Amino acid sequence: MRPPDLAIAAFALVSLAAGPAAPQTERRDPRRSQRACEQGQRLENYGRREHAIESYDEALKYDAENAAAWRQRGRLRLALGQEKDGLRDLTEAVRLDPGDAEAWAARGETYWRLGQAEMAALDFTRAIDLNLERATLFNARGAAYARLGRHEQAVADYARGIRLRLDNPGPYKEQGDSLAALGRYRDAIEAYDSALKLKPDFAGAVLERGFAWGQIGEFVRAIQDFDIALRLDPASARALALRGAARQQSGELAKAAEDFTAALRLEANNVRVLLARGAVHAQLGRLEDSLRDREAAVRLAPDNADAYVARGGSYHLLGQHEKGLADRARAIELNPKLPEAWCARGNALFLLERYEDARRDLEVALRLRPVYPEASTVLEKARARLAELARATKPPEPEAKPAPAVTVTATPPAPAPKAAVPADPRAAEAHHKRGREWLAKEEFRKAAEELSAALRLKPDSPLALNARGYAWLKLRDYKQALADLDQALRLDPNYKNAYRNRAAARRALGDAAGAEADARKSQ
After folding, report:
1. Within 13 Å, how many C-alpha atoms sit on residue 359's CB side?
2. Which of 382, 384, 334 is nearest to 358 (CA)?
């Protein structure tokens, strides 16, 4: 015979493996269990939740396999905020009846409340696959997908939820958020418009619409929306910070600083806002104020590489170059894949006339981000300075020995000096051609890089500007696209394809009137 303690341990293991403990029953009575379950539902309808739970307890006492009782008690516990108990009940419900769509939906909601978005999405899917098609269920799964970063699926689910119920502003707003996360800002604005038609005082929708306007460069419209959002919710730190950013982009630096300061009064430890205000102070020439903000950001987030890049910039502006270089080196240590850190240190090294060190850093920045105009510009300057220094330090040619005297009858004329050899005019065309080849292959970043090389050699080429503008357009960098296409049309006002491409860029940036005008000129 085994010792008693081992027998007890074995029994405990079997009990744990069997799942949630079922109520002890003296005699199974399914009919009595069903009556108790129905009584529990009636008590729920009257709002007597605690008494309803007692009825479900009784139902399970007479029949531990009453899946409906497990489901109803689990849903009620969820409603009472007892998520873990509810989860145990609902898990038993779906085990006993895998075809119960309501139980799957309720367990999905329980997982959602417990912060388990992946499990929630799976349970919502089981409920939907069992033909439980409700707006709330599609919206719930959309929210789970959005939490998981699966925004395309979220957008599709919100669309299905909206079709089933057109009068709910919430899903329109949530759909707009997922569209914005995908960079589809024009579509997001349309979704926010729909939400606001149903609920004009929807502060969240007007705030996020303002953010979307800002992302496509429509800062006046963005500021108007942020003004409305702040009238609806004066204590919104996000609205203040976003309005500050829009004002900064519009050149209203003093007002931007005021907004960032107001946001920091509400959220004193917001590192991003501190860095934003620090940048505005630097633009206003308030260098000590800028440094204070950036020092505070580093104290609050000592592992934030961007904070060190910014503080290094303040040190350089104040002439404290060793500190500046140390900060940028620290940024690179924290995030070796941050191109801004390499570019910032390369730029500082160039200003300190350490051209070889600058060249190395800037080349790393461009490997990390092949299309990086600032890094490309400074790298070209560094290479040019290195070439000048190499020529200046080249040892002089040894003096020629005097030739022996010879008798000549006539002195031939000295040869004419050779003209300087111009740069190969074919080089720009070669880069242009390769850029167009990359465009044809839909390798738009490589195309932009080659076309940038062509334009450095021949900056007045409308063909290359239009081609690079198209590459930026496909890369969704609409501001860069618009700048290139504007220049192409200044050089060639009759360039129809450039008008066509600029119409697309303007449409993406929300300039419907400008897009329509360009479309007419492209005909």
Report:
1. 11
2. 382
- C-alpha distances out from residue 468 to 356, 428, 480, 483, Å: 30, 14, 9, 10
**Hey, what are 470's tokens?**
């198209």
pLDDT for residue 5 is more than 90: no
C-alpha dist (Å) from residue 84 to 78, 81, 475: 8, 9, 46
Q: Give how far Cα 354 sits from Cα of 134, 324, 325, 382, 384, Å.
A: 66, 14, 12, 9, 13
Res. 413: pLDDT tops 60: no
Task: Say what percent of the chain tops pLDDT 70.
Answer: 89
Q: pLDDT confidence of 337, banded at 50, 70, 90? A: very high
Q: What is the DSSP letter of 171?
A: H
Q: Which two tokens stand for residue 98?
A: 């895998």
Single-letter amino acid code for the residue at 88: R
pLDDT score of 517: 76
What was the pLDDT predicted at 274?
97
- Distance CA(41)–CA(76), nearest Å, equals 10
Predicted pLDDT of residue 18: 40
Residue with tokens 């800062």: 219
Which CA distances in Å does 339 have to 165, 311, 465? 46, 16, 25
* Stretch among 78-82, 351-355, 377-381, 407-411 having the lowest mean pLDDT: 407-411
Q: At what angle do helices 271-283 and 253-266 cross, to 10 degrees?
A: 160
Query: Which residues neighbour 333 within 8 Å (Cβ) at sequence distance 6 or greater?
Result: none
Q: Is 414 exposed, middle or buried (0-12, 13-18, 19+ CB in 10 A)?
A: exposed
Structure tokens at 201: 């005082």
Structure letter (DSSP) for residue 335: -
Enter the pTM of the model: 0.69
Q: Which two tokens stand for residue 478?
A: 């609409």
CA-to-CA dists, residue 14 to 7, 18, 22, 87, angstroms: 11, 6, 14, 21
Please list, residue by residue across 354-364, b when 16 or more beta carbons sit within 10 angstroms of its beta carbon and e when fewer do: bbebbbbbbbb
Average pLDDT score over residue span 198-222: 95
Contacts of 180 (CB under 8 A, 6+ apart): 188, 208, 211, 212, 215
Q: Which of the 8 DSSP states describes residue 251?
A: T
**Would residue 496 be called left, alpha or beta, if left means φ above 0 and alpha means ψ between -120 and 50 degrees?**
alpha
Amino acid at 410: A
For the record, the structure tokens of 432 come out as 């242009």
Alpha carbons within 13 angstroms on the beta-carbon side of residue 319 total 0
Distance from C-alpha of 103 to C-alpha of 90, rounded to nearest angstrom: 6
User: Residue 440: which pLDDT band, with cuts at 50, 70 and 90?
Assistant: confident
Residue 216 corresponds to which tokens in the numbers above? Answer: 């496509």
Q: Which two tokens stand for residue 354?
A: 């350490």
Q: What pLDDT is attached to residue 118?
A: 97
